[in-house]
Amino acid sequence: MAPTIEAVIFDLDGVITDTAEYHYLAWKQLGEDLDIPFDREFNETLKGVSRMDSLERILSLGGKQNAFSEEEKLALAAKKNEHYVTLIQHISEQDLLPGITAFLDEIRNAGLKIGMASASKNALMVVEALKVRHYFDDIVDAATVAQSKPHPEVFLRAAEALDVEPSRCIGVEDATAGITAIHAAGMYAVGVGPESALHEADYRVDSTDLLSLEQILASRSLV
Question: Read out DSSP for 1-21?
């Protein structure tokens, strides 16, 4: 018999709000500065991946993976973040994805804990700008973990912060790396997005407005 679910842990980008476009524009600007052009298809490979790992992928794309020292790479990553922070200055609750507030209310009304496991170091700033900070019992982001997704560390840290066993957690993600991380953490994986990218999710919806705690639990006979 499957264990009782006690918590739901969310990714941020692509699940709570869609800042993916801002990340794309910020990385694209850095790529242009380095004479490494890339398109949206390549950008998809960066979803759910940490800032430094994303930078390594971009440098490899341009054949410049050995062109910079670690210190210079850190400076490049910081420059990308400066572009990103500038772009998201005007983010607000209007940027919440459809149905997310209702889903958070459903989870809270069911008495479950709510956490966040984000690959973004700006997660807290974004959540506060979206005016949904009060929903989350704890937020774990890339600034507090050593390993990036698909490593499970950020989800395991989130479960620990919530004081809930991983097997009693549901993880919600929009990226392949995130689904892998959720499974590696021993959690039930809910995917938001196309089946082509999220076919390994235990339960999947096309968009956030279709998220339903009742249906997710029923899919595993947890109610």
Answer: -PPPP-EEEE-SBTTTB--HH
The DSSP element (H or E) to which 196 belongs, if any, is: helix 195-198
Assigned token pair, 150: 């698909």
Q: What HEC string does the chain produce?
A: CCCCCCEEEECCECCCECCHHHHHHHHHHHHHHCCCCCCHHHHHHHCCCCHHHHHHHHHHHCCCCCCCCHHHHHHHHHHHHHHHHHHCCCCCHHHECCCHHHHHHHHHHCCCEEEEECCCCCHHHHHHHCCCHHHCCEEECHHHCCCCCCCCHHHHHHHHHHCCCHHHEEEEECCHHHHHHHHHCCCEEEEECCHHHHCCCCEEECCHHHCCHHHHHHHCCCC
pLDDT digits (tens, 9 = 90+) for 190-199: 999 999 989 9
Q: Which residue has the tokens 């062109």?
A: 67
- Other Cβ atoms closer than 10 A to 175: 27
pLDDT in tens, 104-148: 999 999 999 999 999 888 899 899 999 999 999 999 988 888 888
Q: Which residue numbers are catalytic?
A: 11, 13
Torsional class of 167: left (φ above 0), alpha (ψ -120 to 50), beta (otherwise): alpha
* Phi, then psi, of 28 in degrees rounded to 5: -60, -40
What's the pLDDT score for residue 113? Answer: 98
| Residue 154 to residues 102, 120, 139, 186, 220, Cα–Cα distance (Å) | 25, 11, 10, 13, 24
